[in-house]
Specification:
binds 1-O-phosphono-alpha-D-ribofuranose, binds manganese (II) ion, DeoB, 13 helices, Alpha-Beta Plaits, 2 domains, Phosphopentomutase_DeoB_cap_sf, eight-stranded mixed sheet, globular, alpha/beta, single chain, phosphopentomutase activity
Length: 399
């Protein structure tokens, strides 16, 4: 009997995927470009533990070249790169596919950059949420739009609606002036009104502060996702009386489906401390599933290369701590849900390969090649937990 600890470094892509061109992302490489930037700064990325677990080799499998400036070491884990089958490069699709359920249908999108939302929908929202009006109604970066419209929002009481290349409806509002609970209520209503539009997520984006110079988003972000289209590994494990401990955003991403315990935490240290406490308590037959959101939200979307690099170095330092909390049969998995290259144009995700780095006492080191789908991880977990196989994905050989 085993336990698996799956850490999703949200947005940590390792090179443009075979179908990246379709997304305008040919040449994107979140990891490779961060490494290149740091080499140019004469401060090469210091990630000895990720390197030991096979990150450099997985990136080379994906791109054909080694990331710049990083010293190679002997690899002690199994490593692969995986392409995505799902139609979109969004967070729910990436996570569901990792758990064995790629998204084969097309999401609805609000593609217009301005006046993005249909008028009929906006009218319904205003009426059912008893709003005076709304601001935004465009594609935007969440931190920029609160700078631009936050003060007007406080004066008018109208929430800020925006979207992106993802299938999302995002609502920013001030935690105190508008009220956090009221924002959540509005999001829940919008979630229901979006039914005919096939939209993946509504995201509540609360913020605090008094003026454009000091508005700040808080950890009270909440995602209202639709249910995964089919049962995932989480459901299968739960059926077999296994435990699924979801840390951070994971429970929201699966709309609670298949989760037996949800632990909320924020920040890299907060999320990894919560993961460690789960590792201390969890019995056999448990999946501990953690999403590390800051890579994406604070650095990828903000196109903050140096911030992303430092977060990677901080994460690397955590790895020996996590490894020392592992039991002999535990398997640790490091992966990602899509890319978000901080050197790329715009502020959206990038279509990339993700790393699959598997380690633990029973894992034999070495390459596991290029995988066609993130769902190979789901199939691997099914085998590890002795569950019936998923419809998609090929299990990765551990030993
Ligand atoms: O710019 P912010 O608000 O961080 O939003 C980003 O986060 C959302 C979820 O990943 C994406 O749709 C993108 O728009
Ligand atoms: Mn994501
Ligand atoms: Mn994102």
């Amino acid at each position: 009997m085993s336990r698996a600890i799956v850490l999703v470094l949200d947005s940590f892509g390792i090179g443009s995927a075979p179908d990246a061109k379709k997304f305008g992302d040919d040449g994107a490489d979140t990891f490779g470009h961060i490494a290149e930037y740091r080499q140019q700064q004469n401060a090469p990325l210091n990630i000895p533990n990720l390197t030991r677990l096979g990150l450099l080799e997985a990136h080379k499998e994906a791109t054909g070249v080694y990331a710049k400036g990083i010293n190679k070491t002997e690899v002690s884990g199994a490593y692969a790169c995986a392409a995505e089958l799902s139609s979109g490069k969004d967070t729910p699709s990436g996570h569901w596919e990792l758990m064995g359920v790629p998204v084969h249908f097309e999401w609805g999108y609000f593609r217009d950059k301005e006046n993005s939302f249909p008028e009929a929908l906006l009218a319904q929202i205003v009426e059912s949420c008893e709003l005076k009006g709304y601001l935004g109604n465009c594609h935007a970066s969440g931190t920029e739009i609160i700078k631009q419209m936050g003060e007007q929002h406080i004066r008018s009481g109208s929430p800020i609606f925006y979207t992106s290349a993802d299938s999302v409806f995002q609502i920013a509002a001030h935690e105190e002036y508008f009220g956090l609970e009221r924002l959540y209520q509005v999001c829940a209503k919008v979630r229901a009104l979006l039914e005919p539009y096939n939209i993946g997520r509504v995201i509540a984006r609360p913020f605090i502060g008094e003026s454009a110079n000091n508005f700040e988003r808080t950890a009270n972000r909440k995602d209202y996702s639709v249910l995964p289209p089919k049962p995932t590994v989480l459901d299968k494990l739960q059926e077999k009386r296994g435990e699924v401990i979801a840390v951070g955003k994971i429970s929201d991403i699966f709309a609670g489906q298949g989760v037996t315990q949800s632990v909320k935490a924020s920040g890299l240290d907060g999320l990894l401390n919560a993961t460690l406490s789960a590792m201390e308590k969890a019995s056999d037959n448990t999946l501990i599933f953690t999403n590390l959101v800051d890579f994406d939200t604070l650095y990828g979307h903000r196109r903050n290369i140096q911030g992303y690099a430092e977060e990677l170095e901080a994460f690397d330092q955590w790895l020996p701590v996590i490894e020392s909390a592992m039991k002999p049969d535990d398997v640790l998995v490091l992966t990602a849900d899509h890319g978000c290259d901080p050197t790329w144009e715009g502020t959206d995700h990038t279509r990339e390969y993700v790393p699959l780095l598997l380690s633990g006492q029973k894992v034999i080191a070495g390459s596991r090649g290029k995988r066609n789908s993130f769902a190979d991880l789901g199939q691997t977990l099914c085998r590890l937990f002795d569950l019936p196989p998923m419809e998609e994905g090929e299990a990765i050989q551990l030993s």
